[in-house]
Amino acid sequence: MGIFRELGMREGKDRINEEVVYNIARAYTLIENYITQFLTTYNLSPAKFNIMLAVKHVGKEKGIAQNAISKLLLVTTSNMTRMIDKLEKDGYVERVHQVGDRRVNLIKITKKGSDLLDAIWPHYKEKIDKPVGATLTNSEKVQMNKLLEKFNYVIKSNIGNDEERKDEIN
What is the pTM of this model? Predict the structure, then answer.
């Protein structure tokens, strides 16, 4: 059944662009809810989990600047600050001053945070493998990735710049 029919909306060939966006949004929402439910058992949100992954794997031992995490994860700086405050309070990350520039805080994963990610990862991977693995063949996954990468590139190129300019103004 098409998503518009499922939602009780008018279908039509002239609405294919909307249908694509609705299907992507629906898939994202379903996956987000599924992952949120899983991560809640660890007292984490998907955003906090992704921040910790970025800090551990991108920042490594050196750490990563807070604004770099914001850009990687497409999160506003104010939201990032609040989430890092909570992660720091829980002992999962720490802020350290960048050598040579005390104005820049680097975020580093703590042993507690790293251990938590290591404990969660196999279960998380199992959770994300389940819906994708049961639904798509490997060639379909490759094709979907290529299409989504193209779609994301076009979106970022066409409307991402407007959002960046909006952030610069605010």
Answer: 0.77
